[in-house]
Input
Amino acid sequence: MGGFTTRCAVIYHLGRYTTAVKNKKQPLTQQVYQQLLEQLTDGRLKFGQVITRRGMAARLGVSMAPVAEAFGELERDGLLETMPRQGTRLRVFTETHAREQAVVRLALETQVARMVCGPKLATPPKSLATIARTLDARTSGGPKRWRAEIDFHLGLAQLTEQAMLIESLGDVLRLGFFIALQTTVGIDDSRRPSSRHGWLLKQLAKSDPDAAAASMRKHLMQGSMSRVIEGIVI
Output
Protein backbone atom coordinates (compact mmCIF):
# COMPACT_ATOMS: atom_id res chain seq x y z
CA MET A 1 0.00 0.00 0.00
CA GLY A 2 3.04 2.28 0.20
CA GLY A 3 2.50 3.67 -3.29
CA PHE A 4 -1.19 4.29 -2.85
CA THR A 5 -1.06 8.07 -2.36
CA THR A 6 1.18 8.54 -5.38
CA ARG A 7 -1.01 6.29 -7.53
CA CYS A 8 -4.09 8.28 -6.50
CA ALA A 9 -2.44 11.50 -7.68
CA VAL A 10 -1.62 10.02 -11.07
CA ILE A 11 -4.46 7.61 -11.70
CA TYR A 12 -7.60 9.13 -10.33
CA HIS A 13 -7.19 12.77 -11.27
CA LEU A 14 -7.10 12.18 -15.02
CA GLY A 15 -6.22 15.34 -16.85
CA ARG A 16 -5.10 17.30 -13.80
CA TYR A 17 -1.48 16.42 -14.49
CA THR A 18 -0.79 17.73 -18.00
CA THR A 19 2.97 18.19 -17.68
CA ALA A 20 5.22 17.11 -20.52
CA VAL A 21 7.07 13.83 -20.34
CA LYS A 22 10.37 15.61 -19.69
CA ASN A 23 9.07 17.30 -16.52
CA LYS A 24 11.28 16.03 -13.66
CA LYS A 25 8.70 16.48 -10.89
CA GLN A 26 7.32 12.95 -11.40
CA PRO A 27 9.23 9.69 -11.90
CA LEU A 28 9.54 9.01 -15.63
CA THR A 29 7.43 5.84 -15.50
CA GLN A 30 4.56 7.79 -13.90
CA GLN A 31 4.88 10.52 -16.52
CA VAL A 32 4.69 7.96 -19.34
CA TYR A 33 1.80 6.18 -17.64
CA GLN A 34 -0.13 9.45 -17.28
CA GLN A 35 0.60 10.42 -20.87
CA LEU A 36 -0.85 7.11 -22.07
CA LEU A 37 -3.98 7.59 -19.97
CA GLU A 38 -4.46 11.11 -21.29
CA GLN A 39 -4.00 9.98 -24.89
CA LEU A 40 -6.57 7.24 -24.34
CA THR A 41 -8.96 9.75 -22.78
CA ASP A 42 -8.74 12.32 -25.57
CA GLY A 43 -8.82 9.79 -28.39
CA ARG A 44 -5.23 9.96 -29.62
CA LEU A 45 -5.04 6.29 -28.64
CA LYS A 46 -7.99 4.09 -29.61
CA PHE A 47 -9.52 1.10 -27.85
CA GLY A 48 -8.43 -2.01 -29.72
CA GLN A 49 -5.35 -0.27 -31.14
CA VAL A 50 -2.18 -2.37 -31.23
CA ILE A 51 0.75 -0.55 -29.61
CA THR A 52 4.40 -1.49 -29.14
CA ARG A 53 6.93 -0.52 -26.52
CA ARG A 54 9.40 0.57 -29.17
CA GLY A 55 6.84 2.61 -31.08
CA MET A 56 5.51 4.32 -27.95
CA ALA A 57 9.03 5.09 -26.71
CA ALA A 58 9.75 6.83 -30.03
CA ARG A 59 6.41 8.63 -29.90
CA LEU A 60 7.07 10.02 -26.42
CA GLY A 61 10.79 10.54 -26.84
CA VAL A 62 11.86 8.31 -23.95
CA SER A 63 13.71 5.02 -23.53
CA MET A 64 11.90 1.68 -23.64
CA ALA A 65 12.37 0.91 -19.92
CA PRO A 66 9.79 3.38 -18.51
CA VAL A 67 7.40 2.51 -21.36
CA ALA A 68 7.65 -1.19 -20.49
CA GLU A 69 6.93 -0.39 -16.83
CA ALA A 70 3.98 1.83 -17.80
CA PHE A 71 2.63 -0.93 -20.04
CA GLY A 72 2.80 -3.27 -17.05
CA GLU A 73 0.76 -0.80 -15.00
CA LEU A 74 -1.85 -0.49 -17.75
CA GLU A 75 -2.10 -4.26 -18.02
CA ARG A 76 -2.62 -4.59 -14.26
CA ASP A 77 -5.27 -1.87 -14.52
CA GLY A 78 -7.15 -3.92 -17.10
CA LEU A 79 -6.60 -1.40 -19.90
CA LEU A 80 -4.01 -3.32 -21.90
CA GLU A 81 -3.99 -6.94 -23.05
CA THR A 82 -1.70 -9.24 -24.98
CA MET A 83 -3.38 -10.99 -27.91
CA PRO A 84 -1.90 -14.17 -29.46
CA ARG A 85 -0.21 -13.38 -32.80
CA GLN A 86 -1.49 -9.78 -32.60
CA GLY A 87 0.72 -8.20 -29.97
CA THR A 88 -0.26 -5.78 -27.23
CA ARG A 89 -3.44 -3.78 -27.67
CA LEU A 90 -5.64 -1.43 -25.70
CA ARG A 91 -8.47 -3.47 -24.31
CA VAL A 92 -11.86 -3.48 -26.01
CA PHE A 93 -14.71 -3.21 -23.51
CA THR A 94 -18.23 -4.59 -23.90
CA GLU A 95 -21.57 -4.27 -22.16
CA THR A 96 -20.63 -7.36 -20.15
CA HIS A 97 -17.59 -5.53 -18.78
CA ALA A 98 -19.84 -2.58 -17.93
CA ARG A 99 -22.23 -4.83 -16.02
CA GLU A 100 -19.45 -6.59 -14.09
CA GLN A 101 -17.83 -3.26 -13.18
CA ALA A 102 -21.17 -1.88 -12.00
CA VAL A 103 -21.83 -4.90 -9.76
CA VAL A 104 -18.46 -4.52 -8.03
CA ARG A 105 -18.83 -0.76 -7.72
CA LEU A 106 -22.28 -1.07 -6.17
CA ALA A 107 -21.01 -3.57 -3.60
CA LEU A 108 -18.04 -1.39 -2.64
CA GLU A 109 -19.96 1.89 -2.56
CA THR A 110 -22.76 0.56 -0.37
CA GLN A 111 -20.16 -0.79 2.06
CA VAL A 112 -18.50 2.63 2.15
CA ALA A 113 -21.89 4.19 2.92
CA ARG A 114 -22.42 1.80 5.83
CA MET A 115 -19.01 2.64 7.28
CA VAL A 116 -19.04 6.44 6.99
CA CYS A 117 -22.66 7.29 7.81
CA GLY A 118 -23.43 9.27 10.94
CA PRO A 119 -21.02 11.58 12.82
CA LYS A 120 -18.32 11.55 10.12
CA LEU A 121 -20.73 13.27 7.76
CA ALA A 122 -22.82 15.26 10.22
CA THR A 123 -20.69 18.14 8.99
CA PRO A 124 -19.27 17.01 5.63
CA PRO A 125 -15.64 17.89 4.87
CA LYS A 126 -15.49 21.14 2.93
CA SER A 127 -13.83 19.44 -0.01
CA LEU A 128 -16.69 16.95 -0.35
CA ALA A 129 -19.36 19.61 0.01
CA THR A 130 -17.66 21.75 -2.63
CA ILE A 131 -17.41 18.88 -5.12
CA ALA A 132 -21.05 17.98 -4.46
CA ARG A 133 -22.18 21.55 -5.21
CA THR A 134 -20.06 21.63 -8.37
CA LEU A 135 -21.48 18.35 -9.60
CA ASP A 136 -25.04 19.32 -8.82
CA ALA A 137 -24.58 22.67 -10.60
CA ARG A 138 -23.64 20.74 -13.77
CA THR A 139 -21.08 23.28 -14.87
CA SER A 140 -19.19 20.66 -16.86
CA GLY A 141 -19.77 17.34 -18.58
CA GLY A 142 -17.97 14.42 -20.13
CA PRO A 143 -14.55 13.35 -18.82
CA LYS A 144 -14.15 16.44 -16.64
CA ARG A 145 -17.37 15.60 -14.81
CA TRP A 146 -16.28 12.01 -14.38
CA ARG A 147 -13.07 13.18 -12.75
CA ALA A 148 -15.16 15.15 -10.26
CA GLU A 149 -17.37 12.09 -9.67
CA ILE A 150 -14.27 10.03 -8.90
CA ASP A 151 -13.05 12.71 -6.50
CA PHE A 152 -16.41 12.75 -4.73
CA HIS A 153 -16.77 9.02 -4.26
CA LEU A 154 -13.13 8.48 -3.33
CA GLY A 155 -13.52 11.34 -0.84
CA LEU A 156 -16.28 9.39 0.86
CA ALA A 157 -14.18 6.23 0.81
CA GLN A 158 -11.23 8.05 2.39
CA LEU A 159 -13.36 8.53 5.50
CA THR A 160 -13.32 4.75 6.07
CA GLU A 161 -9.53 4.90 6.58
CA GLN A 162 -9.34 1.45 4.99
CA ALA A 163 -6.54 1.58 2.43
CA MET A 164 -7.44 -1.60 0.57
CA LEU A 165 -11.09 -0.59 0.26
CA ILE A 166 -10.12 2.87 -0.98
CA GLU A 167 -7.67 1.51 -3.52
CA SER A 168 -10.12 -1.13 -4.77
CA LEU A 169 -12.89 1.42 -5.23
CA GLY A 170 -10.50 3.78 -6.99
CA ASP A 171 -9.52 1.08 -9.45
CA VAL A 172 -13.17 0.25 -10.13
CA LEU A 173 -14.17 3.89 -10.58
CA ARG A 174 -11.36 4.60 -12.98
CA LEU A 175 -12.04 1.45 -14.98
CA GLY A 176 -15.67 2.52 -15.18
CA PHE A 177 -14.59 5.81 -16.71
CA PHE A 178 -12.75 4.06 -19.54
CA ILE A 179 -15.57 1.55 -20.05
CA ALA A 180 -18.02 4.44 -20.34
CA LEU A 181 -15.82 6.17 -22.91
CA GLN A 182 -16.12 3.15 -25.18
CA THR A 183 -19.50 1.50 -24.55
CA THR A 184 -23.08 2.67 -24.93
CA VAL A 185 -23.25 3.22 -21.17
CA GLY A 186 -21.90 6.70 -21.91
CA ILE A 187 -20.73 9.46 -19.61
CA ASP A 188 -23.66 11.89 -19.92
CA ASP A 189 -25.79 12.21 -16.78
CA SER A 190 -27.88 15.20 -17.87
CA ARG A 191 -31.10 13.38 -16.96
CA ARG A 192 -30.11 12.69 -13.38
CA PRO A 193 -31.67 14.67 -10.49
CA SER A 194 -29.84 17.97 -10.14
CA SER A 195 -29.22 17.75 -6.38
CA ARG A 196 -28.31 14.07 -6.07
CA HIS A 197 -24.85 14.57 -4.50
CA GLY A 198 -26.02 17.07 -1.91
CA TRP A 199 -28.96 14.79 -1.17
CA LEU A 200 -26.64 11.83 -0.67
CA LEU A 201 -24.48 13.71 1.83
CA LYS A 202 -27.60 14.60 3.85
CA GLN A 203 -28.75 10.98 3.88
CA LEU A 204 -25.33 9.71 4.95
CA ALA A 205 -25.30 12.13 7.89
CA LYS A 206 -27.85 9.86 9.56
CA SER A 207 -26.56 7.06 11.79
CA ASP A 208 -28.38 4.21 10.05
CA PRO A 209 -26.10 1.88 8.05
CA ASP A 210 -28.92 0.07 6.25
CA ALA A 211 -30.57 3.33 5.23
CA ALA A 212 -27.18 4.71 4.17
CA ALA A 213 -26.55 1.71 1.92
CA ALA A 214 -30.03 2.07 0.42
CA SER A 215 -29.43 5.78 -0.22
CA MET A 216 -26.12 5.04 -1.95
CA ARG A 217 -27.79 2.44 -4.13
CA LYS A 218 -30.53 4.92 -5.05
CA HIS A 219 -27.91 7.56 -5.83
CA LEU A 220 -25.98 5.24 -8.14
CA MET A 221 -29.06 3.79 -9.81
CA GLN A 222 -30.26 7.27 -10.79
CA GLY A 223 -27.55 7.32 -13.42
CA SER A 224 -26.38 5.13 -16.27
CA MET A 225 -25.69 2.25 -13.88
CA SER A 226 -29.40 1.44 -13.84
CA ARG A 227 -29.22 0.42 -17.52
CA VAL A 228 -26.62 -2.28 -16.89
CA ILE A 229 -27.42 -3.54 -13.40
CA GLU A 230 -31.22 -3.45 -13.18
CA GLY A 231 -32.65 -6.29 -11.10
CA ILE A 232 -29.43 -7.26 -9.30
CA VAL A 233 -29.68 -7.29 -5.51
CA ILE A 234 -26.52 -6.31 -3.63
Summary: Residues 1-23 have pLDDT under 50 and may be disordered. The longest strand covers residues 80-83. The longest helix spans residues 95-116. Strands lie at 80-83, 87-90.
